């Protein structure tokens, strides 16, 4: 059966509008807006806590959040119990006003924090004629990054959600630095972009996914990444408001390579937080993350600084002197051992299957 091609349907137009919203963090065409902490958690970053205001006659606006009944005056007009600054909106024989005032976004724009910009320590730095490092030696160093949970800027998609172990820990593969791990994550972002471009050009969903998968695997070492999980990850993120750093952290965090430092506000309106983010330290291996988490408390040099702040995570590696001072007998490496055991068992099963297949092929000849 011939598959029907999709040519900019209403659903796609809605998705594109959502992507525009994610980039601007302001609803299209809005002149006035309001926000309220409805669940009492200290921000207005959850769905339904941020809205476009309704225009009223006379140039006033009403916030659709936390509406209460207006009073009917003897004159026949309605007034809001909260005061004259709160306009009343007629609705089916009555009128309501809101606890929240509307604000003009042209004079009170949404304030956004840029993504954390930390390229990490450059590997293989300058050396002298004898091969001695001329720079700072860091062992198990990482990179400061951030991912964003559901909020206005992510079109209420959770960009920090665990998707399963996608990037492998690097045992026996060519992946040996955080920069290369990030390159793998960027490969998935490239695949996602290719899939979206194909869908926008009129491809079916399956054709778009195929285009994304083809773009994903180009130039990647197959032993470094779980391809099927990466493709599912790519499709899941395809129409979300997650940006490239969200995707990079999502892959590394899901693979057990990131330490979460804490949350902070990354987009606010009149001092009210509309979008949160979680600062992360992401390392080149799961073992690197485990050693950092259990090694830092042993060292006085980290007592005062810890992991830095959520906005500015401190992800530096150990100096050679610090690494030598670590007491590995006091560390719980069971998570790492379990990962090795699971992978070794899988490798044995693959090896056995290959040997049995070879034997059957030989017997059948």
Features:
alpha+beta; 2 domains; 33% helix; three-stranded antiparallel beta sheet; elongated; disordered N terminus; 365 residues
Description:
This protein is α+β, with helices and mostly antiparallel strands and 365 residues long. It folds into two domains: 26-104, no CATH class; 111-122 and 137-332, no CATH class. The protein has eight helices and 14 strands. The strands form five sheets. The chain has a four-stranded antiparallel sheet. A three-stranded antiparallel sheet has the order 2-1-10, with no helix packed on it. Helix 2 (178-200) runs antiparallel to helix 3, helix 2 crosses helix 4 and helix 2 (178-200) crosses helix 5 (244-254). The longest helix is centred in the last third of the chain and has 31 residues, at 334-364. The radius of gyration is 27 Å and the shape is elongated.
Question: What's the overall average pLDDT, rounded?
Answer: 76
**Overall number of domains:** 2
Give me the number of helical elements: 8
How would you sum up the global shape? elongated
Measured as a percent range, the helix fraction is 25-40%
Query: How many strands, which pairing sense, and closed or not: the largest β-sheet?
Result: 4 strands, antiparallel
Low-confidence stretches: 1-30, 171-176
Strand content: 15-25%
Q: Spell the H/E element sequence.
A: HEEEEEEEEEEEEHHHHEEHHH
Return Rg in Å.
27 Å
